[in-house]
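Quarterly update from the structural biology core.
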Amino acid sequence: MRSIVAASLLLLNASAFAQAQTAPFDMSGERPPGVSIAPRQTPPAPPAAAAPVPVTPPVTVLPAPAPQATPGPGPGPGPGPAPAPVPPAIAVQPAATANTAPVQRPGSVRRYVVPFSKLGLSGEYDRRSWSVYLTQEQAAAKASFTFAYQNSIVVAPEASALTVYLNNRPIGQQRVGSPDGPSAVTFAVPPGLLQPGANVVTFEAAQRHRTDCSIQSTYELWSNIDPAGTYLSFAGSDAVEPASADAIRAIGVDGAGKTEFDIVVPALEQPGTTKPLLRLAQGLSVLSSMPNQIFAFGTASLPAGGPGKLSVLVGTAAELRPLFPGLPSGAESAALAAFVTDPRSGSPVLLISGPSWPAVSSAIDTIVSPTDRSADIRRDVLTTERWSAPNAPLVFSDTNIALSQLGVKTTEFSGRRLRTSFNIAVPADFYANAYGEAKVLLDAAYTDNVLPGSHIDIYVNDNIASTVPITTTTGGILRHLPIRVTMRHIKPGLNTVAIEAILMTKDDAACVPGATAGANPRFALFDTSELHMPDFARVGQRPNLAAMAGTAYPYGRGTEPTPLFIDRVDADTLSAAATLLGQMAVMAGHPIPVETVASPNTIGDRDAIFIGSISQMPASALSQTNIATASQASWRPVTDAQTGVVDTGTAFEKWNSKVSGGVLRSRLTAFREWLWRNFDISRSSLQFVPGAEEIFTPPNTASLMVAQGSSPAGAGSWTVVAAPSAKDLREGVEVLTSQLNWPQISGHITTYSSKTGKIEAVPVTRFDFVPSTPWSIANYRLIAANWLSTNILSYASLLVVFVLLIGVTTSTMLKKLGRSK
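Predicted structure, tokenized:
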């Protein structure tokens, strides 16, 4: 009997020991009590050597995938087939913090999908759409969609919902009910819904207030989507990060909405490497077209991979072999562009090599050449689908565009404030901000419950452009109601137009319990509405940083390489230059050819770009952009340790209020602001001719400056991008080129402060016209109309002169032709 018991105990101990050895043995020190450690998975054995993707010698060409058509906006809730039923959420689980996402399942691949650092859905109705590029393996794999969100405490969960669409088909709907902390929700993706290439992701929020029925209460409604907790999960090993040309387009984003290209170049500082490297950076930017791209150059080792990152090795075979022992043998005899596998992480690495740097440049061309486009070919759209779908159409002349083509769907609304927006784009030579008017031809309907005092507002780039009051009490149907929209706030490049309906009813005034939900629709917006853009004046302006930010003007139109002055080729400066040129290439729609120059004397009157630290910037470039040359020694960033540093602008305003007459000056300033706000009359508009630009000295609170001016003879545009140091330059450019900040670049000087996060612009006082279209009387008439509308005194003086001429001419004719007695 004792032997049987002993044998049983021995078997139990052996079983327990076997279970304890499931996780790898951990020899780390003891941990404090209460700290739990998840079992680690045994990593797979690394491959013996980095094997390149099979290619055809002698040059490994990465074929550019065929452009994928972006699915158009889906049908609205109006007449038509009924939408597919919305499946319920698979799981809802609370997250510990806003940045905490559900644990990744073993054997799955996670793909973050939100291209923003923050994503908020506000108001009673909000909708955001963008596209995510997927490879063929990812589209075919079994997938699920997870998002983490938190909402305002005043959102009524019984009447509010978040709906997720993939390719305009609803895959799940979640009742909004996570005010205390972030919650994660997972939906299954129906098989066959995803497709290789672009896939449209849409978040739609319908939210109602718990207790309040006022218009003001709708501004308290919000649901924030956490980018770090929003992703697609693909099952199986087939959906691993691609090792093909699709890896560039499908690079995606990380948990913060950023995309990073890590380029390792052992010969980074050698002469002759800068031009091909910058061409490579622009090609990668255009291929991915992501909104928040940054480039990081290095020379030592291959950085670790991760979501939203792509490592690139560039150099000759002799330069790369110490860093990458598994270098293919073909790199020593011919140009090579291929994806290889990093033996440490298993992630794909883009390898560009050859026996010499001319061969390396040839390999770079095989990647970048599919993105090249002739300056003579006119674009029809501005590529925005990676952060705002669909792409924004470029409008060049008199055009009518249905809102259905702009992503707006027919919406029946039962709330109090409906807001929907769409994007359009205008060319860089747009010049109609002072006199032009567009029209929104509105198709809408409202019930007899809507009271007079309600109104429909049109916004352009978040500025109110037009208001139409609702005056009837019997309801109505609006068929192509023309709403005139001033083009004062339209700028070159991308523009956002929003339609907002403010609706008031007697039920809202009473606000009985349960009335906040709103069951019956009271307003409908139809996607047959149109936007009409008239003919507008077209002429380039110099300087014009808004045009450079909008379409990379004038560098995107150049037929010859643009001279690029870089003070020194180090990792920080070259990373800043690549990030800036990459963003400009995305706006231009193609890489911008550049050639590096060592001196401004070799540039002449061509369009040029200067980038570097302020101390190394040529004095002639600063003078042409109206930057004080003394700033080369005086511009130093303010540090926390510095005391007694006074900001000049703040001190001036403080002393202005102390001296005699300060109250009178403040009243005059308030009167000028009132004139500008109500009648669009400013001091500059009351001048006969524009005044000269003032010399600008960057304040010590600024950490980056972008300035533009004319070349010495006035035939070209010179743009200076400078900072106190190379580190400030790199960090400032990364912030300024983000999708949120890039549209704020305007005027002839824009500054950014890393301390305050503010971006400030100095408006253009005097500019030169640059002809951009063939000569025509109609265009010159529109140019004169806009210029005279900006310079009121000149217009009044010309009007008086013409009246006098008409009077003198009439009097002379009457004397000769009329009766003398």
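DSSP finds 16 helices and 36 strands in the chain.
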